[in-house]
Amino acid sequence: MGAPELELPRFLEAALSAGHPWVYRDHVPRDFQASSGAVVRIHAGAFSGFALWDAESQIALRVYSTREEPSAAWVAERVRQAWELRALVRSSDTDAFRWLFGEGDGLPGIVVDVYGKWAVIALYADGLERIADWVADALRATTDLAGIVRRGREAGARLSLVWGRKPPAELVVAEHGVRMTADLELGQKTGLFLDHRENRRFVGSLAAGRRVLNLFSYTGAFSLYAARGGATQVTSVDVAAGAMDAARENFRLNGLDADAHDFVVADVFEHLEHARRKNITWDLVISDPPSFARSKQHQKQALRAYVKLNALAMQVTARGGLLAAASCTSQVSPDAFRQTLAEAASRAKRRFQIIHEAGQPADHPVFAQHLEGRYLKFVVGRVLPAA
Which of 52, 107, 198, 384 is 20 to 30 A (C-alpha) from 122? Predict the structure, then answer.
């Protein structure tokens, strides 16, 4: 029996025909029912395509193809094409990168990250088990791996072995020659934040001779690049004591004297307030907070948080110093994020002179029809006193 058919509102035709991969639940007829993971043949005006149904999430349908139902061979071709693109980032000094970026590689809801000889699969929708099995087979067929593992979606979920052997608890990977430990089981994301790779390198190019403050530092990746780039001193701040221990170990792993730098376990906002009151400043401040908005309902709250955070960050940036500010939520557009920086500068009684803007690297591609995939914003500017 073929895929069930579903007629969608005609006004979706333009977006779907242009290649947008999502259909939200409130655009689906209320009486439609299917099990999560079912392939559905959808129609909207003249548009026709094959999508995977999710019975629970806000995104009810993820469009996979306009031509054929997803199959093992079809998935293998997507995986192969993605691997070809990753030739832009993988090298002898970089063996940690994103192989599959879901919608950006034509496989909505599925992410695969590579750490050395291991691949980590993460699913962001119910009902993708069959697709995930095909992806795992395609990964093995494309390159030599030691193992393939899965990260669960629930907090605290254990790492499950798909094929081969599990990675060591403290796997060491390389990024532009910088060595870092990656905890694939308990670490953030799938182990590390791979999307800031090129932004970290840029920060490293600015660090020589500067005192650096790295906020929300996690295991110290930005700090490592700054120290390797010639920073005179780096202060890393994170609320997680375990992350600070890992950051110290990463410094030692790269032949850097951890004792020459500061690793502070503290709430970032409280640390900034303390520094502001004491008139402590740094020449380069890096602000890379976690997502302040995971849905549209939290957008206004996120915008206020960015203003507060970056106003404080500007107040502890030395006159003429640099602030590197990031946002990792798709709920805040690049324009909206720049506006928060303008408001932060006004609140801090500073001027913020933008000198560099970037997003995610080449292993996080985005189709032109799916701008939501361009989630990462990274803005570097000079902090000047009010004119």
Answer: 198
Instruction: Retrieve residue 231's tokens.
Output: 């920073």
What is the set of active-site residues?
328
* pLDDT-above-70 percentage for the chain: 97
String of b and e for 8-38 (b: at least 16 CB within 10 Å)? beeebeebbbeebbbbeeeebeeeeebeebe
Separation CA 52–CA 88 (nearest Å): 30
For residue range 190-243, what is the model confidence (pLDDT) as tens digits? Answer: 999 999 999 999 999 999 999 999 999 999 999 999 999 999 999 999 999 999
**Angle at 183 (CA atoms; ends 113, 218), nearest 5 degrees:** 95
Element (H, E) at 251: helix 241-253
Which residue is listed with tokens 């094409």? Answer: 81
322: alpha, beta or left? (left if phi > 0; alpha if psi -120 to 50):
beta
The CA distances from residue 247 to 170, 172, 202, 306, in Å, are 13, 13, 20, 25
Q: Which domains does the chain have, with CATH numbers?
A: 5-65 (2.30.130.10), 72-175 (3.30.750.80), 193-385 (3.40.50.150)
Category of 247 on φ-ψ map: left (φ > 0), alpha (ψ -120 to 50) or beta: alpha
Note the pLDDT tens digit of each residue in 295-318: 666 788 889 999 999 999 999 999
